Amino acid sequence: MSATIQSIEAILVDIPTIRPHKLSMTTMGIQTMVIVRVKDSDGLEGLGEATTIGGLAYGPESPESVKITIETYFKPQLINQPAGNINTLRVMLDRSTRGNNLAKSAIESALLDLQGKRLNRPVSDLLGGALHQHVPVLWTLASGDTRKDIEEALGLIETRRHCDFKLKIGARPVMDDVRHVAAIKEAVGDSASVRVDVNQAWDEATAAKGMAELQSAGIDLVEQPTPMKDHAALVRLSEKFHLPILADEAVADAKDLYNLAAAGFSGAVAMKIAKAGGPVQALKQAAVAQAAGIGLYGGTLLEGTIGTAASLHAWSTLETLHWGTEMFGPLLMKDDIVAKPLHFHNNGVDLPQGPGLGIEIDEDKLARYRRKA
């Protein structure tokens, strides 16, 4: 008889960041994670995580709403169900609950971790097998201070921790942002790739002006310059410039990407397991991108180690990540809640080893940072 799900717990965890992390819509000083623990009738436990950027300033789900969704709506459906039939459980949740992909991603990740531990295989094996044991990782320069960002970038290049950088822009006048970015690119030169993330802050006219300037400054990629629902603007801008556009908020799942590609978009897509509803769903998006000739990028919602590991297992199965990944979330936090942190080195991170996600909780750290009320 197959093991059944016996308990599900969703825990809010608050960890300070190493510095203020500025985005166009908010500034983060604390990252809140929802840690999901799923236990089965054999006593095994699967771990998952859901995280967002700046709460409701970023999107329609917050950590608090994810916790409520899992405990109030998902838990009653999942208890006593066969733990290994992940597809059946996903379809069941999709039929009963619209959207809420962050919550679904945490559950899918936990079920994959549980299945991997049961079979004594890594999650990457469950997804077809890892092609890479080391995945490239960029770093986001988001202090907002040009001098500090240059010092930070040069230090990271020297230690070979990162050689690609993304800059969060869009909160200031467009030419102020351009001067900030151009100065950093000039400082690092050809030793590093510099990209920008506008987080939907520009209208199409502003984006056209900004992209022309950024193209001249030698920037390699522009992420989501216009609002998420304005697909037509992304298509027009991608046709106008040879500076590639990275679609992020505009693309949640495989169907979104198909529609954007069919409309004529060329460039790249930021895959995120949280947006897609889990690692399996994110890889469906990757298949559409590969068929359409759209570049792949492993995106993050600044997850901690558990969510980052779930993403890494998915990205490791892809032959080519044209633009690398940004799985640096754990490095942005002052502390961690796992027994063994991920190993970041040589401009990337190693795929964690062992059954499931290869991650174990540090119970003392979890108790320290879990939200009490």
UniProtKB/TrEMBL annotation:
<dbReference type="InterPro" id="IPR013342">
    <property type="entry name" value="Mandelate_racemase_C"/>
</dbReference>
<dbReference type="InterPro" id="IPR034593">
    <property type="entry name" value="DgoD-like"/>
</dbReference>
<keyword id="KW-0464">Manganese</keyword>
<keyword id="KW-0058">Aromatic hydrocarbons catabolism</keyword>
<dbReference type="InterPro" id="IPR013341">
    <property type="entry name" value="Mandelate_racemase_N_dom"/>
</dbReference>
<keyword id="KW-0479">Metal-binding</keyword>
<dbReference type="InterPro" id="IPR036849">
    <property type="entry name" value="Enolase-like_C_sf"/>
</dbReference>
<dbReference type="GO" id="GO:0018850">
    <property type="term" value="F:chloromuconate cycloisomerase activity"/>
</dbReference>
<feature type="domain" description="Mandelate racemase/muconate lactonizing enzyme C-terminal">
    <location>
        <begin position="147"/>
        <end position="244"/>
    </location>
</feature>
<protein>
    <submittedName>
        <fullName>Muconate cycloisomerase</fullName>
    </submittedName>
</protein>
<dbReference type="GO" id="GO:0018849">
    <property type="term" value="F:muconate cycloisomerase activity"/>
</dbReference>
<dbReference type="Pfam" id="PF13378">
    <property type="entry name" value="MR_MLE_C"/>
</dbReference>
<feature type="active site" description="Proton acceptor">
    <location>
        <position position="168"/>
    </location>
</feature>
<dbReference type="GO" id="GO:0009063">
    <property type="term" value="P:amino acid catabolic process"/>
</dbReference>
<dbReference type="InterPro" id="IPR013370">
    <property type="entry name" value="Chloromuconate_cycloisomerase"/>
</dbReference>
<dbReference type="Pfam" id="PF02746">
    <property type="entry name" value="MR_MLE_N"/>
</dbReference>
<feature type="active site" description="Proton donor">
    <location>
        <position position="326"/>
    </location>
</feature>
<dbReference type="InterPro" id="IPR018110">
    <property type="entry name" value="Mandel_Rmase/mucon_lact_enz_CS"/>
</dbReference>
<comment type="similarity">
    <text>Belongs to the mandelate racemase/muconate lactonizing enzyme family.</text>
</comment>
<dbReference type="InterPro" id="IPR029017">
    <property type="entry name" value="Enolase-like_N"/>
</dbReference>
<dbReference type="GO" id="GO:0030145">
    <property type="term" value="F:manganese ion binding"/>
</dbReference>
<dbReference type="InterPro" id="IPR029065">
    <property type="entry name" value="Enolase_C-like"/>
</dbReference>
<keyword id="KW-0413">Isomerase</keyword>
